[in-house]
Amino acid sequence: METNKTSILILDDEPIVSKRLKPSLEKKGYEVETFTHSADALARVNERRFDIVVTDLKMEGVDGMQILTEVKEKYPDTEVIVITGFATMATAKESFNKGVFDFLAKPFKLGEIAEVIAKAENKIKNNQ
Amino acid sequence: MKNLLQQIRRIFQKKEEETIPFKLLFNNFKKSLELNNQILDLIADANDKLSGDYIFDQQYIRNCCRYLADMMRELVVIVNHLTSQKYLGLFVSFHRIEEEIEVILDSGILLPETDLVLPYSVINRDLFDAVGGKNGHIAEIGSLLDLNIPAGFAITTAAFALFWKHNDLKTTVAEYMHKWEKETISTSEAAESIKQAIINSEVPKDLVLAIQKAADLTTGTHAETEKCFAVRSSALGEDEIASFAGQYLSRLNVPVENICNSYKEVVASLYNPGAMEYRKGKDYRDAEVVMSVACQLMIPAKVSGVMYTYDPNQPENETLLISSAWGLGAPIVSGEIPTDYFVLDRSPPHKAQEVDIVHKEQRMILVGCSGTEMAPVMKGQRNRPSLQDDQLKELAGIGLKLEQHFKKPQDIEFAVDNEGRMTILQSRPLTLQQKQAPRACDLNDLDSKYTILLRGKGGAAVEGIAAGPVWLYNGQRDLDDFPLGSILVARYASPQLARVIHKAAGFITDIGSTTGHLATVAREFRVPALFNLEDASKTLIDGQTITLDTECLTIYEGLVKELHYFGLQEEPIEGLYEYRLLRRILKKIEPLNLVDPTDQNFRPKYCQTYHDLTRFIHEKAVETIIHLNYYHTHHKDTQAGQLIWDYPLDLVLIDVGGGIEGAHEKGIQPEQIISVPMQSLIRGMSYPGMWDMAPANVDFSSFMSSLTRTAETGHSSPEDIGRNLAVISAEYTNINFRLGYHFTVIDAYISENVLDNHIYFRFSGGVTETTRRARRTRLLFEILSHYDFFCELHGDIIVARLKRMDKKNMLDRLFLLGLLVGFTRQLDVKMVNDDRIRTYFEQIKSIMEDNHGNKQDQYSYTR
Fold first, then answer.
1. Could you report the per-residue pLDDT of A108-126, keeping only the tens digit for each?
2. What is the complex's ipTM, to 2 decimals?
3. B753 with B730, same domain?
4. Any A CB within 8 A of B552 CB
5. CB of B330 within 8 A of CB of B309?
6. In angstroms, what separates the C-alpha of A88 from chain B's closest C-alpha?
7. Closest CA in chain A for residue B447
8. Contact B80, B554 (CB under 8 A)
């Protein structure tokens, strides 16, 4: 679907995250695709570019750090937001080195993630 | 806190050798207070997550349970250290609760240990896991909405568990389910085998007897021919989530002696192929596949029918649909006979848009007590409408009331008996089947189409969408006049507003805590609520129609149809496993059942939740400190005594170094207190007029007893409970006051070193009605915030902290806390309306200003 909407990919192995985020973000005018398996998400990323990628950190198989690395390699302009229940200084540092846009600790409010996404969107628009 | 402990250690270090015992004791006491506070904060935070505003996952729930269990375990250990292992029973209770929580975490549910059957009259929301959706809803319709429902009872999930265990059905079912999942047998083969196993099982004797007894009680004085039941499914989740509807079996006109057989048939329908397939695709765990059964006395219906509160295909028409015919409802529901059809306006006076009266030849009737049969309709009635105008209007009103209560469009079954009495048999969510259903992504251009009245302010207490006229509440209007389906707009989120919860489409307030009482109730009943909008009550006009979207913090002018119909279709949050899980777990954590220390059940083994455990432990910790230092041989280095003064507050002072001077055989005079923080507190507490010395109104006797002297009961018993405790030194004060069911805690260290200074204040409780209590909480919050405290509200608990201020300012603020402790004792009683908050605030401020000029009062002295 060709639109000029900001596109977002959401990846979290717990389905509730996508289930709640998708309608909330769509309501705000974003185009949203959601995944619970990182391999599927990675395959999709190889097919197309997303403006923003929201990913969990700890997952079976390919973890969030790898997703971050691969997305940034392939699309340096894509902003990646990491959501995690296990934020440590080490992982935070590593992800910032790898170009993460922001870090959000779970659980978070719908409003909080919307704010971070809006900031990322602004950054993308300003860079264009 | 670590810093604080170091400070206390420093305080005791001077007399290290002699003070070891009390130092240890007091360190443990402090540690227990710290854990207590941390646990209560974590519980309050977890409860917040149910607002719908947060995204949380199972990992969060598991972490939360683990942290709580770790802290609880430590707390139980500490209190046993403190009390020479006096309360080992706490370990047993703790492990029991922890295990129950583990079971819920593993399997999603812990079936409540209720009676095998429960009459409708005792069923409330807390029992939904015991009675299932259909029973729960119908009982609630009877009790909360005051509508006619059939007499009846629920055969609970506890009965189901017993039936399952008695026949080892778990093994049998698991075997077939396994084969089905591995696809070695088909769905219908699996369904048939499991159902057969259930039908062939035996209903345990206890259950047979319980059913018999409940049936006899229900039928009571009814004639023999009227003693038959409808036996219907009431599975967990059924009737809460629309698409579950109609998956399971009902049996009509069942005589008492056949209820057990019908019970087995209904339970077996859990494994109807359709239901199995449905659950496979949904968020259901095996342990949640549980059925309660409804037994309802048959109503010999003259007319029956079905009402939809919206036209499912064209909701934008804003109409209600009613189908009805003569006789019982079964052939109407299944579409076997033609029915009269009415289309009414949703809004009063519910004008008929369309009426279609059909020729009705057949009706279903009861045959004695052995089932039903089709019979001809009397000739004269065949072409007459089965419902009259007034009945249609009555139904429409009922429909809107039910929709308002359950927050979704409803599919309602009703019956009219020979006396014309309308009875509601069932009400469940209606799925709207719009061809062009609004989708979330269609909702992003609303701003260009509608006027925004308010946006971006406030916080969502309950997430959701509400549309309706504004009803401005100014404190003067009668809440009984609140019109159904309106949005209540008020200055404060006062708990008294909860009275209109069954009528309100939404709540909007200028000021209010998203974790307060009103928020909790609104959450329970899924009423969208937006608080803290500052000036909504000035911006919004009474009677104006608005659409509220709490997730986007937006209020639109008029009816925003796209949002409204989107909201009507959204899956309720209860459809998400994580919400059900957290809610169930919190039931084992949050409720406080152990409230009265004088009650004989105030014992470890009666602790049912973590909150009970913390409450019990705090009581015993305070009691122990008093006990060891006041009634018994004092530690050499500590002095203890009761404060002698004119105020109705029993306070035991324990001085751990430099807090008291002079001899005090008969108690301690206020002038003898040289502890700097305590002096300021005492000055505040004894400020003229802060204590209402008049005898208490008898209504508030229980409240009064919470803070007044216990001296009347005599000092003879060292185990005497209910005392207040202050542990003091030259620069430190730790106070535990009782107020209502809770302790109010003040902990302060004040010295010349600004960096070490801190005040901690935790206030909760009071036993007057919630409205006044909430006003008092709000007053405290406003005052404390005004005087630079960092305040957090958890329900009606306030936690206020202040750090690193110079000595003079710190002492000023302790004086303030002293004022508040004395003052708030009477505040509950006097907070009769919202205006009082302002009055008292001003009063306190003026006293503070006077104090700043060092105005002297009776207990102030210069040293």
1. 988 899 999 999 999 998 8
2. 0.89
3. yes
4. yes
5. no
6. 15
7. A28
8. no
